[in-house]
Sequence to fold (289 residues):
Amino acid sequence: MIFINPRTDFAFKKIFGSEQSHDILISFLNGILYAGEPAIQDLTIINPYQAPIIKGLKSTYLDIKAELKTGEMVVIEMQVLNVAGFEKRILYNAAKAYSIELAEGQFYANLNPVIALTITDFIMFDDMEQYLSRFMLQEKDCLIDYPIQDLELVFVELPKFKRSLSELESLSDRWIYFLQHAPDLETIPEKMAEIPEMNHAFAIANKATLTREELDEQHRQSFFIHDQRGVAVKALEQGIKQGIEQGIRENQVQTALRLLPILDDETIEQTTGLPIGDIQKLRNQSTDL
Fold:
């Protein structure tokens, strides 16, 4: 079997957010949010489009949006590329999901909690080692929780998860391993096959079950991610190269300035490698000063 990459937008939504995915999403959320306990028994997958309350405000799309039987809202986003403003987008989407629950004339007490679950294929928090982190409102100095904990931000940073297949223990471990390694597998590992919802997820991710249009969309998104990462690497390499060149240039100039009072221009050129025209400009500038 060949499995599609569940980290692409198309695959993630198909596996976890389609009408046939309720059992998968329930198991996934129980694993990530509730340490494998069956806290979520049922949910409704709803349209992830978040229309603005006020005309002119920004509309937003989430990867998956689900309402739990308890009334809680879970908004889920799988992010492969670390783009500018991503941290603010998470806050914006969470706050928007919370605020649009309230219809005109309703009381604020009717607002239900929102959990914003963000899975990243890059490291967001360099100062934390754990791959799973949770943020809620808290007083800065006394570390006292705000009386209403209706907004929770949950992050899973995939690069921080280093466990091998033989080291998988919890339901959370298995789902994160699935996100990381499904495209590398040829069969469903025994440790994962024993969970019915994971078998279902692998079945949906099996390329043999996809239509030609779905395969084309999956390939398009995979190529786009690959290209964007290539652009980022090239930009970093160019920045490093420019930085090195700038450092060399600055060192040449500083050395030339020290040698101006004691050596002629030709000797300074041979010593520093700085073009003689630049040395003459430095000498003229020092003379003017």
